[in-house]
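Regression check, zinc ion case 117:
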Amino acid sequence: MQEMLRKRLIDALADCRVRACPDAELDEQPRLDACADENEFASRVVEVGMHLALRRRLEERRGEIEAALKRLDRGCYGDCEECGEEIGLARLMANPTAQLCVYCQADSERGQLRRCA
Ligand SMILES: [Zn+2]
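Current build output:
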């Protein structure tokens, strides 16, 4: 069953690469002189910003997937990083890059909420 999850992780990694690549030209900074007017410039700034945000999310996702593959190689995949208990197959199937068991995840989300408040 770990081999199946490994395959899913590798597929997801390939998917990130494909999605990060095709519109590489959007990486260029928006150039004011290439735009008809300020409105076009403004919308291009938004467009590039959204693209960069998407790319950052893909990079993060790729990092998570690579970390999960490393854990698979080390043989500690599926162990909660917080309490060391098994994360559980159902959770891993839903989210193969999960690093915390459902209890520790809930704890950490509560902690984040407290920090925000
Ligand atoms: Zn845990």
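Comparison notes: Helices lie at 2-20, 38-74, 89-94, 102-116. Residues 1-76 form one domain. No diff flagged against the previous build.
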